[in-house]
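Local shape tokens

___
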Amino acid sequence: MTELEQQLNNIQAGSLSTIESDRKSFELFIEKHNALFKRACGRKPDIAPVQHLLGVLTKAHIEETSHIESQSESAAAMRKVFDENLGKEHTHKFEELGSRQFALVTHLWLYCQGYLRMDFSLANDHAFNSATLLSTTTLASTQELRTQFLESFYLGNERSPIAARTPSKLSQWFKRLFS
């Protein structure tokens, strides 16, 4: 088991349904990014490995986003050919590998953000932007994809050992005042 895969297992990301249903994309991700993760951990051993993981996932997400954006026209054209020649009932059987890889990286990235208890509104924006981009190459709606991505964020948040932030006294006062 590689260091990257071990770190993903340490934060329980290996049990995401996306990973379980698409093992090949997960293995490609590990193969492609393990060396970077290992280098990052070696260069700055005083930083928690989960922080390095977030950095690697952020970089991977940027790369996959760029790939999807550059391939979106050809993927849409391919989907159109499938629709016209096979019919919509068979088109769902074909999915571009880049789309699967992008979805996997997005799920892992948002899971890690949740695990680190990062800001929800930022994660929601990332989920929406990723879903919008991915919906152009898949048959799924933007809202459906955004919801799936946010499930990963919430699962990471639920599994996080980091204590949830308590609301400030001012926000508690407002809540009591308007409740």
